[in-house]
């Protein structure tokens, strides 16, 4: 079973929830899809880490064959090609490796070469499989890394937690595409509502069963809660504002590993999520 | 000699556009004949790489200099290969900038920003 954890922006508690759930289940896998700023490994501190580079295809031109027709330039939706001063220029950092220009070139002047854009790291943290992806700075898209990460999920993994990138861009869609259930985490502020509504639209679009966990809850008005009630979104749980939890978290410790109190709290949350996901799978297979 | 300026509108009145790749129009001004032509920037609405596409358009129009408030690294790379000089505009007025350029008072654009590149709408 794959559970994706999403939020509209960073710092809402996405990784907090993900790593704490990962250490509770048995035979779980934690996948950090936040490839621009992976931080789950800082908490889980995996051992026996194996690193593998991820490469994409980038076009290279043979100027001896190129006749300057510019068909490739017109074709490229990402504007990664330019033809200037009788020379074709390729902008690797915005090329999305679609391969289209190579097909379109009538002179067969374009071929592809590998370019490394990042890596995946696989390790183990007290029996939990930890997979992280890292996108090199300045690269166009982390999607090839996410594809690779999701493909590396061990076959025997009973429960897999996918820590998604923040936001609702295509990289998030890629991260949740195989998820059985999505958990949205939100803060109790007006900004929190805005961020929540973005990810809510996304999971609706993908028709994923979902619910919300409200983090950092205080007494009094909670705009994120009101949003959920208005839109008929199930609120699975509320995590109260808690400075002890915050301190553990900012020291890169996993609360559920440090204290029985938090172990109990996250076990209950995890149990609810699993029940919800199983229920959804039974009614909407 | 021809110069290009990213502008907000097809007129000299509505000012220099603060973005290069995403400017709606480019003014092409001929220094000798004082003739003004406005080009639609087809890159303005593209999903990504607007700077590259806009720079290609500027190069295709055989201008000698680009007057702009800012420019990304990919576009600057193209303009360099095309031997188009980059100058930094001062203030919003199009006519003042043309005048300043003619008097040699504009400084070369130095701060080329790393790509914003609009990937995936983060
Ligand atoms: S399509 Fe081929 S021949 Fe035409 S400009 Fe591109 S590389 Fe050159
Ligand atoms: S591979 Fe696709 S994105 Fe890259 S330059 Fe060619 S057409 Fe553009």
What can you tell me about this protein's structure?
The complex is a heterodimer of chains A (285) and B (122). Chain A has 285 residues and is of the alpha/beta class. Chain A has two domains: 2-54 and 120-283, P-loop containing nucleotide triphosphate hydrolases (Rossmann fold, 3-Layer(aba) Sandwich), CATH 3.40.50.300; 56-116, Alpha-Beta Plaits. Chain A is built from eleven helices and eleven strands. In chain A, the strands form two sheets. A nine-stranded mixed beta sheet of chain A has the order 3-6-7-2-8-1-9-10-11, sandwiched between helices. In chain A, strands 4-5 form a two-stranded antiparallel sheet. In chain A, helix 5 runs parallel beside helix 6 (170-176). Chain A is elongated, with a radius of gyration of 22 Å. The mean pLDDT of chain A is 90. Chain B has a five-stranded mixed beta sheet with strand order 3-2-1-4-5, sandwiched between helices. Chain B has a single domain (2-27, 34-110), classed as Dinitrogenase iron-molybdenum cofactor biosynthesis domain (Nucleotidyltransferase, domain 5, 2-Layer Sandwich), CATH 3.30.420. Chain B has helices spanning 50-60, 73-81, 94-102, and strands spanning 2-7, 25-30, 36-40, 65-68, 85-88. By secondary structure, chain B is α/β, with parallel strands linked by helices. Helix content of chain B is 24%, strand content 20%. In chain B, helix 1 packs parallel to helix 2. Chains A and B meet through strand 4 of A and helix 1 and helix 2 of B. The complex binds iron/sulfur cluster (SF4) (2 copies). The site of one iron/sulfur cluster has 13 residues of chain A, from helix 4.
